[in-house]
Structure formats: structure tokens, C-alpha cells
What we know:
By secondary structure, this protein is of the alpha+beta class. The protein has helices spanning 4-10, 24-34, 53-59, 72-75, 89-99, 118-141, and strands spanning 17-18, 38-43, 46-52, 103-108, 111-117. A 3-stranded mixed sheet has the order 1-2-3. β4 (103-108) and β5 (111-117) form a beta hairpin.
Amino acid sequence: MKPVVELLKKRSASMYEVPPSIMVFEALQQLAQYEVGAILVMDQGKLIGVVSERDYTRKVALQGRNSKEITVADIMTREVITVAPQTITGACMALMSQKKIRHLPVVDGERVLGMISIRDIMDDIIADQELTISQLTSYISS
């Protein structure tokens, strides 16, 4: 297992964010455009929330509300669970499982470095396992 900062280095440097004042519909368009399930909500460079497909489903769609009339601030998750850059992937997976979340912002002090998803962690675990299997197979064959 490796620190999550290593996962961030493997991806594009893009960090997707929206201000709290935009309409939920616009945030949904960005989620679709970037092909992500959650996006950071930033205000004057500070992380103030995360808005996800789950937030939309539970706080807009299922309540019969109109996403063009509600701001991100109205539905975002405000109590954001974050991890430090040196947090290992296994600890992130345990935290995500325990808290039933799929995305974790990676924060160094007050500076947001990016966000990892459960998919990022699973891809990393699979790659590590494939490497281990390959090494063991090579060792056994020699």
C-alpha cells in the first residue's frame, strides 16, 4: 500500500471544483463533462463542501425539487471527511467503507491537493496484486 499522494501523481493534474453559488444543474453538467461522481465545492480557495451524484439523488430528485432552482450550497455535504497526502490507501479504503463514502479530498493543511475515489484505490490495489502475482509466478518458474 502506498500514500494517496502517489495516486494523485498518476492522474492528470486537473482538480475539479465549483463555487457554492452555482445551480445544481450546472454542477451536474460538470460532473458529466469530467466523468466524475463528485466535485469539490470551493469558496475563495477554501474547501467548504463536496457535491456528489448521491447528494443530487437524495436532496433534489427524490424530493421532487428542480436542479435549476437550487444552489450547490443547498445540497452539498458540508462535513467533509478528508485525508492527508501521506495517508496510505488501505486506511483510505477502511475510512470510505466505515463512513459509506466514495470520494476523499486529499488536503495538506488548508491546501486541497485533489480528490481520490474508491475506484482510484481499487485500481491501485488490483495493480499491486497483479504485480505480486507476476513476481511470484516468475519466482516459481525460475
